[in-house]
Design a protein that fits this description.
This protein has three domains: 97 residues, OB fold (Dihydrolipoamide Acetyltransferase, E2P); 86 residues, E3-binding domain (Dihydrolipoamide Transferase), CATH 4.10.320; 210 residues, Chloramphenicol Acetyltransferase. It is 27% helix and 25% strand. The strands form six sheets. Strands 11-20-19-18-14-17 form a six-stranded mixed β-sheet. Strands 1-8-6-3 form a four-stranded antiparallel β-sheet, with no helix packed on it. The relative contact order is 0.10.
């Protein structure tokens, strides 16, 4: 019998993804749970497994296509009695497992982007209808068609280097660059009076990140409070034990696991910090699923270490190392990025001494960590040099008052400034 493959749920707040490549060709045999297709979302790349054993009959959506959750993307022929997998099952609000219902195949927008006046100013004259006709006449991906419309390009003029002469995104970009090439050796050459610039379309992951950040920044009333932490004792403690721990356990402990534990200790007195807010209800979490930001080229992802209140500093360090490596290798699973209750972002590793981080909705707070800097401070009537770290705590002022946030941050810093009082037995 025929079975239609649909795009399963791909994570919280994810509504669509882009097909990167098909892992099973048309006509190829497929076993249960074998990966069929790789799909890219704004968070991770994920391989979708087969729910049945059979044969891949037809790809309904080619590579580079943007597809919505639930969209039909392929047809399989199931041989004999189908063997089910739970790969496509999700848990609904009613608590029952179900397979997502069929939806129509997602279709990219055909909206025309750009202005004729702008392109005419740049010396690019084109008729919209002719351009549209030239774009539709050539087999291409939605990304390629969008670029062509944005830059008034008739795709029939572009040399395709893909399979069977298919025009790729790189082909269009090369065409754009070549079109703007100027031969300065010509006697009639005149330097253009326009500013020289590189136009970089904001698409894919970067576009979704932009949308999410805008939504968070303009729907959550952010307030950021700052406070300094004297890291002297913690720096000395880590210096004393870091090599020994690495030799015995194979992980070099950073300061991040200590920050996690300090957050947990301080939140025992200020529990609303570890919560999510949906506009009507504040859900105060008893477990601490701490997200930590990992920078990847021009994008960011936040893996989550779950149930940190039950784990030692060493266990947290090991999980952070493992998740960081998976993030950099694009090997994270959906479960690795879901369910965060509080986030820590470390701008200090890049040299920042202050920042105002944006909250990861629906969480209500995020901790910004900055560079440890030697500074002169007054101690017992004397000026001494101490390693000082400035923390920035951004909080949702709809549910967290300023005094509450300030006291939480100060309590967290007190734990970090006197680590011996709680480090014994938690490594």
């Amino acid at each position: 019998m025929e079975y239609k493959i649909v795009v399963p749920p791909l994570g919280e707040s994810v509504v669509e993804g882009t097909i990167v490549k098909w892992l099973k060709a048309e006509g190829e045999k497929v076993k249960v749970d074998e990966p069929l297709v790789e799909i890219m979302t704004d968070k991770i790349n994920i391989e979708i497994p087969s729910p049945y054993e059979g044969t891949m009959i037809k790809h309904l959506s080619p590579a580079d296509t943007v597809v919505e959750i639930g969209a039909e993307i392929a047809i399989m022929e199931v041989e004999g009695e189908a063997i089910k997998t739970k790969a496509f099952q999700t848990t609904a609000e009613d608590g029952k497992e179900h397979i997502p219902g069929e939806q129509e195949t997602a279709r990219p927008s055909e909206e025309f982007v750009g202005t004729t006046a702008h392109h005419e100013k740049m010396g690019i004259h084109a008729d919209k209808e002719a351009i549209d006709s030239g774009i539709k006449a050539v087999k291409s991906s939605p990304i390629v068609r969008r670029l062509a419309r944005e830059h008034f390009i008739d795709l029939r003029l572009v040399h395709g280097t893909g399979r069977d002469g298919r025009v790729s995104k790189e082909d269009v970009i090369n065409y754009i660059n070549a079109r703007h090439t100027i031969d300065k050796k010509k006697p009639d050459f005149i330097w253009p009076d326009t500013e020289v610039e590189e136009v970089i379309p904001i698409t894919g992951v970067r576009k979704v990140i932009s949308e999410h950040m805008t939504k968070a920044a303009f729907t959550i009333p952010h307030v950021t409070t700052f406070d300094d932490c004297d890291m002297s004792d913690l720096v000395a403690w880590r210096r004393k034990y870091v090599d020994r721990i690495e030799a015995e356990h194979g992980v070099r402990i950073t300061y991040m696991p200590f920050f996690v534990k300090a957050v947990i200790h301080a939140a025992k007195k200020f529990p609303w910090i570890n919560a999510t807010f949906d506009g009507d209800n504040l859900r105060v979490k008893k477990n601490f699923n701490i997200g930590f930001a990992v920078a990847r080229e021009n994008s960011l992802i936040v893996p989550v270490v779950r149930n940190c209140e039950q784990k030692s500093i060493l266990q947290i360090a090991m999980e952070m190392k493992e998740l960081g490596e998976k993030a950099n290798a694009d090997k994270l699973d959906i479960k690795d990025i879901q369910g965060g209750t509080f986030t820590i972002t470390n701008a200090g590793m890049f040299g920042a001494t202050a920042s105002t981080p944006i909250i990861a909705h629906p969480q209500v707070a995020i901790l910004g960590v900055h560079k440890i800097t030697d500074k002169p401070v007054a101690r017992d009537g004397e000026i001494v040099i101490r390693p000082i770290l400035n923390f920035g705590l951004s909080f949702d002022h709809r549910v967290i008052d300023g005094g509450y946030a300030v006291q939480f941050l100060r309590k967290m810093i007190e734990y970090l400034e006197e680590p011996e009082s709680w480090l014994i037995g938690v490594i």
